[in-house]
Amino acid sequence: MDTQERFHRYVALLFSFTIPVLGVVELTRGIGSPLAVARVAGFVALGSWAVYIALKARPKAVLLVLATMTHGGVLVVVESLSESESSAFDFATTFGALTVLSVLAGTLVTGNRMIWGSGIAGMLATWVIVVGALEGEVAQVVAGRAVVAAAGVLATTTLVSKLLDQLSEAIVRHDRSARLQDAIARCSEALLVQKDAFATYEAVRALLEASDADYAYIDRTIEVDGEPGWEMSADAAKRAAGYGSARRRGMYSEIPSTYEMLLEGQAAVVHTGTLQGRERKFYADAGILSEVAVPIFVAGVLRGTIGFVAYTDDTVWSDAEIQTLWRASHMIGSYWGRQDYAQELRASNESKERLLASVSHEIRTPLTAIVGLSEEINASRSSLGPEELNELNEIIAVQSRELAELVEDLLVASRADFGNLSIKPEMISLHDQVSRVLDGVRESHRTEKRVEAACKDVLAWADPLRVRQILRNLLTNAIKYGGDRIVVEAHCDGNASYVMVTDNGPGIPTHESDLIFERYYRSAESPTKPGSVGIGLAVSRQLAEMMEGSLRYVSEGSESRFELELPFLSAAPATGVEKVKVGNY
Ligand code: ADP
Q1: How many Å apart are CA 474 and CA 482, to the nearest integer?
Q2: pLDDT (tens digit, 9 = 90+) per residue, 456-508?
Q3: Ligand 1 atom closest to Cα of 531?
Q4: pTM
Q5: Are residues 147 and 253 in the same domain?
Q6: Are 283 and 215 in contact (CB under 8 A)?
Q7: Scanning 225, 384, 421, 427, which has the fewest C-beta atoms within 10 Å of its C-beta?
Q8: Which domain range does residue 86 map to?
Q9: Residue 186 lies in a domain
């Protein structure tokens, strides 16, 4: 029940008590004449009507007040005409009562109060003139009384109405802001306590109930073929019709100006009638007359929107409603942020568990070989010849180096995670670095594969230790997974220096060409290799980026190529690619 209805009920209650009292006062004069009977009967009828209105769910008291006025006024006129004095109330009392009732009726009416007030004031003035004339009063006195009565009713009605309007406006504002506050509290409770999708549904329902909207929603931004769009995440409606016509997903290209506002971090207030072209069609097709949408950001990225929709009238959204949406948007943003964080944490835990499992597994093979061979050497030292001893020692050395390289990659990954990895760049010759790595790989890997290198006088500004680590990873990968011919080239194009490790093996399927740079990712297509943990390329790319370079995979025809780009510094002008055979082994 609103304030107006409450006011009407109070008036009806007041009448329920005062009219019987007036009836009793009339009874004290007796009911000897038909006029007196009509008077008392009128009070009984009006009193009962007042009780009936006071008990109604949606009381309206204007007619009751007007009828009471008519009853009192008409009986005075009839009394004057019949020249009998049957009432307990004289003219002056009735006049006073009618003036008060006129003001009351004027303030109770809805719509244009000035017109109603003037009408009621006019009626009162007419009554004053009629009774004055019937009583044969002096014309000036009657006219003066009529003017004072009419002006008094009009002025008081206007004043009281204004006050009442302001009061009820303030009450409505206060009510709405209290409801919105409550909605925000419910929203925050839902997002804090509930951990599933119902949290956002609960939040959006709370907001809808507190607003004037027909429909409220939360949607998430999506990408369809690289284009930004939106998908409904949670919604609630006050009317089934509105709910049915709401779309579940769409593209932001359909509503470019709304999207622009959202991207700029502003609330987008839409009145379909003021829009043009495609955008107008979008809202009109959805049956939307007006909408307000507020962006939801997570770590500075637009991740969705929250909004109110009006289907039934062109609602002007209040500041309080827009503020409420902003507050809800911040809460949902942080809720989504927390969800992202929890997911990252879960993924990181899983990846660490996977790493532990795979590292333990991969380390076991070379360690078993090292331990077994060392025991063999110890046990049969006297029976082993120098050549056999050398051979066994060499196997131990190869396995140990592989282990050391794996441990080095893991160490770099963990230092990078803790921000402890330092890069010490200097001017280096890529040719020298490639040669050193090839020498090392030659010692550690026995392979029939043909490895060629072509790197002449190309300089780069990089950390030699880390460049060698990257090259070692690329070369051992090419040997492990690649074809039988491997080529290492270096060149510069004036902007950057490049080292490319190309092999003619099966390569990596296109959909995996980025995945292989993720930690612990191993292509399902590659043959299973001992010592394969899936960390080498991830660490190598990280190191390249720390040196302000990059590492990428390019598939060219039947060749697969890893391209390491480093900041360029050239001592001699680059003269394209020159292949230098370093050796087969
Ligand atoms: P690891 O060698 O320990 O598995 P990497 O990060 O070095 O880890 O490599 C990730 C995956 O990329 C490998 O498991 C393999 O499937 C694939 N890969 C790397 N280099 C090549 C290559 N030259 N040819 C084919 N596949 C490769």
Answers
A1: 10
A2: 778 899 999 999 999 999 999 998 888 888 999 998 887 899 999 999 888 88
A3: 3
A4: 0.57
A5: no
A6: no
A7: 225
A8: 3-172
A9: no
